[in-house]
Amino acid sequence: MPFLGASELRKLLKFNKIITDDDNNNAFNENRIKQAAYELSLGTQVYRTDNKDRKVEILSENNRNIDINPGQFTLLMTDEFVNIPDDKLAFISIKAKLKLKGLVNVSGFHVDPGFKGKLLFSVYNAGPSIITLETKKAYFLIWFANLNSSTGQKDLYSKNNNHHQGQKTIDPDYLDALKRNDMASPSAILLKIGEQKDYFDSEIRTLKNSLENDIKEKNRKVLNNEFFIKLVIGICVAIGTKYMIDLSITQLNVQKHIFENKKINQMQKQIDSIKSKIIPLQNTHNVIDKKNIKNNVTAKE
């Protein structure tokens, strides 16, 4: 099964309606032949899994570009129709410059004999950066190989068992499958991890602030309690000191009173002693009277 070279490919595409436009006119462009392949361009219909509207996007002169974000699938439809002859088998791929950016073709790699329609590429951005594509620009390659014999009518690609036949728009069935759930891509997972990290960081900060506030409040209460305890102790010390001073003064007064009482008692005893030794005045008068009488009697004699 030899592949067609550049000259054979040029003849095939130039004189046969293999590459056609929407009106079934031959859209062969000799400048699109690169080595043994022919370049196909991006059409106007695309679908991105991270599109908020979840619908097919239509590119135009005013909206020519499409951005494929990291970790996202995208459906890309060619601008050209491809008609594969009965005795040919085609192989398709995306250009190396897109592959080197991380864009991976995850759809089929061949086109069966008898296929007629636009090609639909399913690609995945496995790279770290956004990949931007522009409508009408050549991003795809197709090679043709000869079969040993023509494919029989019953074995040709047809609408009977193949819903891609004649396709010119993106089938809604593909969209339904891609809309069911969020993409579990590495970038999406990393984004969710980042969101969870931000959430837990916020919770940890909140908890830390709450703990710090609780500690500050408890420290404030401890300081208040310490101040209150010191105040109570100070008052108790003051009261105790005053009590001791008053007690000392009372004891001094009591001792002074006892001393004065003793002194008074001693003086009283001395007075009593003196009184006991002094002759009563009446007795003294009697003695004097008696002495005077005696003296008078003596003088008369």
Main attributes of the structure:
single chain; alpha+beta; ten-stranded antiparallel sheet; two-stranded antiparallel sheet; 45% helix
What is the rounded Rg?
62 Å
Determine the N-to-C terminus distance: 208 Å
Helix content: 40-55%
* Total beta-strand segments: 12
**Averaging pLDDT over every residue, what do you get?**
86
Beta-strand content bin: 15-25%
* Biggest beta-sheet profile: 10 strands, antiparallel
| Secondary-structure element pattern, one letter each | HEEEEEEEHEEEEEHHH
Q: Give the number of helices.
A: 5
Q: Which stretches are poorly predicted, pLDDT < 50 over at least 5 residues?
A: none
Structural class: alpha+beta
User: How would the global form be characterised?
Assistant: rod-shaped
Can you characterise this structure?
45% of the residues lie in helices and 23% in strands. The protein has 5 helices and 12 strands. The strands form 2 sheets. Strands 1, 2, 3, 4, 6, 7, 8, 9, 10 and 12 form a 10-stranded antiparallel beta sheet that branches. The protein has a two-stranded antiparallel sheet with strand order 5-11. A hairpin with an 8-residue loop joins strand 3 and strand 4 (57-58).
Write a compact overview of the structure shown:
Keywords: Hydrolase, Nucleotide metabolism. The protein is α+β, with helices and mostly antiparallel strands and 301 residues long. It has helices at residues 6-15, 96-99, 172-179, 186-277, 281-300; strands at residues 19-20, 33-34, 37-48, 57-58, 65-68, 73-83, 88-94, 103-105, 110-111, 116-125, 131-134, 138-146.
Write the layout of secondary structure elements.
Blueprint: H1 6-15, E1 19-20, E2 33-34, E3 37-48, E4 57-58, E5 65-68, E6 73-83, E7 88-94, H2 96-99, E8 103-105, E9 110-111, E10 116-125, E11 131-134, E12 138-146, H3 172-179, H4 186-277, H5 281-300
Antiparallel strand pairs: 1-6, 2-3, 3-4, 3-6, 3-12, 5-11, 6-10, 7-9, 7-12, 8-10
